[in-house]
Amino acid sequence: MKAFGWTILLLALAPLPTRGEEPGQTPRPGTADPVREPTEEELVRLDKTLPEWLSVKDDAPYVYAGKREMDAVRVRKMLDEEKAFNYVLSFAHRQPAERLRKYSFRGVPLENLFRYVLRDEYLRELIHMEGRLSLVLPMKPTDDLRDLTGIERLYEAWVVPPGSDKLVCVVVSELPEGVQPGEDQKVRVAFDAYYFKLWHYETRKLKDPAKDPDRHEWRRAPLFLGKTFEVTGPAVADEPTYTPSVLYGLVGGLAGLGLAGLGLTLWFRRGDRGIKAAARQKIESGVTFENDPAAGPVNRIADQF
């Protein structure tokens, strides 16, 4: 009897098998940890692991850069660069402007965006910049960007940072109240946008007219992609709207950015080379400028809309 009692006690204390522990059964997982929601600061960070970034060559022009004939490798790089361009603009477009302002890096020296050793630290980062607005031009979004976000128009704004004769360019999907496209801008602005690349663009200034009358000078400008910019006040009265270097920077760079942004896929997803050549010629002829620097650039991109 005593032994029987001990047997009953041991059976009562032994753990009962669960369904997951039965032979042939897959053990059931324990209680899952709650999914951690990303912080606001994490929500403004770009995904730097995208494979398309490998085709975005820094300190360089766009892959297309006006070339009429490209091999399959270059075409693929061009399309990947366009995808990265679309990704950043759509990402920024979805962000509240207040969040972008709150988490952007401030106080970044302009020269650091040009220097090879330091520039890598800022690429694809959200950066705050300020300066005098020199020019605002409308541009068409790529077909994929329009289909993805509903954005019907983009704007490229050229800004001269304080104490500099260099330009920075920011492409945005919204203009602040009171700002209209045009060259006669008289305000100071600030923006919080993603540093896409140090962009090479061809100007209309001849490099050496005596040796080669068809060869133009190339310049560099940090290219940012964002949502909008804000007006911070009127421009200083005695501050020139255009310095000679600023004007030369505007002249040819707009055509380069326009060719990259005005529907690259249209040109390389058609089979007929004649159609592609005609499309390029139409857009290239739609962006023209006066030769006299004093007259300022003449914008005809609007004629394409």
Order of helices and strands: HHHHHEHEEEEEHHH
Task: Specify the helix fraction band.
Answer: 25-40%
Please report the distance between the alpha carbons of the first and last residues: 100 Å
Strand order of the largest sheet: 1-2-3-5-4
- In total, how many beta strands? 6
Low-confidence stretches: 243-305
Beta-strand residue percentage: 15-25%
Mean pLDDT across residues:
76
User: What would you report as the Rg, rounded to the nearest angstrom?
Assistant: 28 Å
The largest pleated sheet is described as: 5 strands, mixed, barrel
Alpha-beta classification: alpha+beta
Tell me briefly what this model is.
This protein has 305 residues and is of the alpha+beta class.
Break the fold down into its secondary structure elements and pairings.
Layout: H1 2-13, H2 40-43, H3 72-94, H4 97-103, H5 116-119, E1 126-139, H6 143-149, E2 154-160, E3 168-172, E4 187-208, E5 212-225, E6 229-234, H7 244-261, H8 264-268, H9 273-285
Parallel strand pairs: 3-5
Antiparallel strand pairs: 1-2, 1-4, 2-3, 4-5, 4-6
